[in-house]
Amino acid sequence: MTPQRLDRSTAEFAALTAPVLVSPGVDSRHPAALAEELVRRMPRGYLAPAFAGGMASAAELADSLAPPIRRFLRTAGA
User: Fold this and answer.
1) What are the pLDDT digits (tens) for 19-63?
2) pTM value?
3) Residue 46 domain-assigned?
4) Using an 8 Å Cβ cutoff, are 23 and 38 in contact?
5) How many other CB atoms are there within 10 angstroms of residue 22's CB atom?
6) Domain coverage including residue 63
7) Nearest to 47 by CA among 78, 27, 28, 75
8) Which domain of life, per UniProt (predicted)?
9) I want to staple 39 with a disulfide (CB 3.0 to 4.6 A). Which of 2, 24, 32, 47 is the partner?
């Protein structure tokens, strides 16, 4: 994605005032750099750590996502 296109596609996120947790992608279609840019633009954006692939079940995925979600909820004051 070109810098100009990225700027146009992420500019509207600056208007979000609610806390937003962004989980970075781990592939070329969902680049971590895009998640980082979105968080920079949002006044109350929070970046979750990227999680490793290879989850064998939904329970393993939930176990890996729960800690950053809990931190976000505490930090964001929810």
Assistant:
1) 999 988 877 888 888 899 999 999 999 999 887 667 788 898 888
2) 0.76
3) yes
4) no
5) 19
6) 20-76
7) 75
8) Bacteria
9) 47
